[in-house]
Amino acid sequence: xxxxxxxxxxxxxxxxxxxxxxxxxxxxxxxxxxxxxxxxxxxxxxxxxxxxxxxxxxxxxxxxxxxxxxxxxxxxxxxxxxxxxxxxxxxxxxxxxxxxxxxxxxxx
Length: 108
What we know:
- The protein has helices at residues 2-41, 80-88, 92-107, and strands at 43-47, 54-60, 63-68, 74-75.
- By secondary structure, it is of the alpha+beta class.
- The protein has 3 domains: 1-41; 43-75; 78-108, no CATH class.
- A 4-stranded antiparallel sheet has the order 1-2-3-4.
- Helix 2 (80-88) packs across helix 3.
- The N and C termini lie far apart (65 Å).
């Protein structure tokens, strides 16, 4: 008798988690759709960390840079500064990056 209850409970549990997985997949698909639409429009889904305004995406040397029209902030994603520095060479950002890298390697 308890085997039948255990099987029923396992079946309900599997059904529950299957439904939850399907809901999560649908939410991710919706987010991906919104993200693709925003990218096509040239806007970013991210909000400005400083003033919470919408960010606009710009390309600089094939690197996407997010800017805020309200506060003038410029925001870079992971490794974007390094890619800009590599394009620039020995300009201001290159010297700044070299100084930062030198200090961090000396600390180790």
